[in-house]
From TrEMBL:
InterPro entries, per the entry: CHP02241, Phage_T4_Gp19
Protein known as: Phage tail protein
Cleavable signal peptide: none
Pfam family, one: Phage_T4_gp19
GO molecular function annotations of the record: structural molecule activity
């Protein structure tokens, strides 16, 4: 670990991050208040050893990951990201899915990139709006979930 990462002995806060959409025509509409779903795990298969009931071997099977989820205030209809979501989710598969690379960066206080993840061949699979509530004074939030082929940590 570099000295910059654990300034004063503490891990970095998770509130300073950026999201970018690349591959082809990059989307500039990238302001989000939450990113979740970053993670990968190995799916295993249990194999009982024959004749020896005490042992169950966990054999690696395949990598799996959930969807990458982004949250933000409801965007304007003219938003490029809204256009991509509408084309994908409301297009009834009349056109080929447009795949993009999504890059999430966790930044330090001096705008340096501390960690970065790249999600390849991503496309929107779910687009929802949080509940409206007349007793709360909150921003209306939309959530977009993306499926992707694979991810890698780049920093």
């Amino acid at each position: 670990m570099s000295g910059d990462y654990f300034e004063d002995g503490y891990p970095p806060p998770a509130f300073y991050f950026t999201v970018g959409f690349g591959s082809g025509n990059p989307i500039a509409d990238t302001a989000f208040n939450e990113v979740s779903g970053i993670g990968t795990e190995i799916e295993t298969e249990s194999v009982v050893e024959g004749g020896e009931n005490r042992f169950v071997h966990q054999l690696p099977k395949q990598l799996k990951h959930g969807n990458l989820e982004l949250k933000r205030g409801i965007a304007q209809f003219s938003s490029p990201l809204v256009g991509w979501c509408r084309a994908t989710l409301e297009g009834e598969f009349s056109t080929i899915l447009q795949l993009r690379t999504i890059i999430v960066k966790l930044n330090g206080e001096k705008k340096q990139v501390l960690r970065a993840w790249e999600f390849n061949d991503a496309y929107p699979v779910k687009w929802s709006v949080d509940a409206f509530n007349s007793t709360k004074n909150e921003v209306a939030i939309e959530k977009i979930a993306f499926a992707y082929s694979f991810s890698k940590r780049t920093v």
